[in-house]
Amino acid sequence: xxxxxxxxxxxxxxxxGDILEMDESTATVELAAKALGxxxxxxxxxxxxxxxxxxxxxxxxxxxxxxxxxxxxxxxxKARMLAPxxxxxxxxxxxxGVCPFALSENITVYLDDSMKRFxxxxxxxxxSNSAIELTLDELEKVSNSKQWIDVCKNW
Length: 155
Fold this sequence. Notes:
- The chain is an alpha/beta fold and 155 residues long.
- The chain is 26% helix and 25% strand.
- The protein is built from 5 helices and 10 strands, in the order αβαβββααββββαββ.
- It is globular and about 40 Å long.
C-alpha cells in the first residue's frame, strides 16, 4: 500500500506519526479541504506530467492551475499529464493519493510559487484519504524538490 511506503519514508524526518488518515475521501482538492477543515488553496496538489521517457511532479496550491504557456517556456515542451495507468507506474501512487515523497527514482519534483502565500500546506500521503501538514521548508526538504518554479495561473 502506498501510504505505508510514505509512512516508512517519513520516518527519516520523524514525521511518520503526523500523517493524518481520514474516514472520508481526500482524493480531490474540494474533498481534502472539507475533511481537513481548511481552505482549498492550502491543499498541495501533486500534478504528474510526462517528461520525455520519465515523469515529473509539480506541487501547486489547490486553487492554482497550470499555465500552459509558462510551462512550455520553462520546460521547453508542452504539458501532458500522466494517464491514469501511467501515474502508478511512474510515481508509485494512485490518482487521489499522489504526493511529492516516496516516489519512484526517476521522478523530479518541483514546487510552484502559488504555495508561497501560506505558512503550511497539506499534501496527500499516498492514499485517497490521507494528508500531512507541512511548512514550506519541510515540504521542500521531504520532497527533495529540484527548485521553486512559477508555472501556474488563477491563484
